[in-house]
Amino acid sequence: MAKKVAIITYHHVVNYGAVLQAYALNRFLRKVGGFSVETIDYRPPKAIEAYNKALFENNPLEKNNRARAEKIEFFVRNYIPLTDKSFSSQDQLLEIGSFVYDSFITGSDEVWNIHGFRGFDTSYFLGFVQFGHRYSYAASFGFTESTGQYRAQISSLLEKFDAISVRDNHSLHIIQEELGLRCVKVLDPTLLLKNYDEIIQIPPERGFIFVYSNCSPEEADYIRRFAKYLNKPIIAAAYPLEGAENRLELSPGEWLGHFAAADYVFNGFFHGVAMSLFFQKPFTAFAKPDKIKKVGDLLADVGLADRIVTDPSPNSSLPSPDVDFKNAILTLERLNEESRAFLLENL
User: Fold this and answer.
1) pLDDT tens digits, residue range 261-271?
2) Cross-strand bridge partners of residue 135
3) Is 209-331 in the same CATH topology as 4-193?
4) Domain limits of the chain?
5) I want to staple 114 with a disulfide (CB 3.0 to 4.6 A). Which of 120, 133, 146, 235 is the partner?
6) CATH says 209-331 is which class?
7) Which fold, 4-193?
8) pTM
9) Where are the alpha helices (DSSP H) in the chain?
């Protein structure tokens, strides 16, 4: 009988990267590891309220956001095996029955970002687990600088883990230096899969620049200047961009397909960079203050830190439209093997 594994992560949000990493880890463990896997359908009201307020309340893009939210929820319900019951509180999670699962995993994504709007939630540190092995996979503290007042509690929770892995050097430093615990760095689960054939929907268009970023005015001008230089049309996802064909209601599969079909990609988010690497598409990453640590880590690891643009001003030089992925792919293959081994050998 296959070992049973439960994952707790950010799977229910209106965010392509969040649902894709949830899908990827679940699918990898099922298809490659041969485990029986469920993602715990944990939906804390505080998180739902924050997302609803940002996307739907007094938002001129409410209609587009609701359409995108429906497609993302359909994807979650149909492609990520969830627990039969949904949970909305830490107390409810105690009912999940630790006897049912052999192992629990928290991650990936910023599940330990205790200074984010979710605050400190012990659920993501597996505080509800009574029996079974405990692991983290590619967890991240996000922009949390220190565990601060929660240090003793977090340390006590993580000391019960069988193995800890994180996604970035900043999180690695917190675990090793601040908490004094053993930890390794692994790849984001979106880079574990060999393909996305089950879900990808590739658009008919070719020869376009794809934009997945909430651009500042300077960044938007930079993209338009680059597109004019290459004489290529722009398609933008999730966030409208003047001068682009805005596709604000893409499903996760359609979103993936645009990376596969694009000639060039501009990114403002970590998972956009990850998918550019996955599909080996020439790209630029904007240095967003709240994203640069994790984006910078990944690109430094694969030797492509020069793809980060810190100055998109009108007088700045444009990026090269070509990227040599040879060394990056070799590095990703090594990191992929190490990351897969962390999961398969521990579980």
Assistant:
1) 999 999 999 99
2) 105, 163
3) yes
4) 4-193, 209-331
5) 120
6) alpha beta
7) Rossmann fold (3.40.50)
8) 0.96
9) 16-31, 45-56, 62-79, 90-93, 151-158, 169-173, 217-230, 252-261, 270-278, 292-301, 326-346
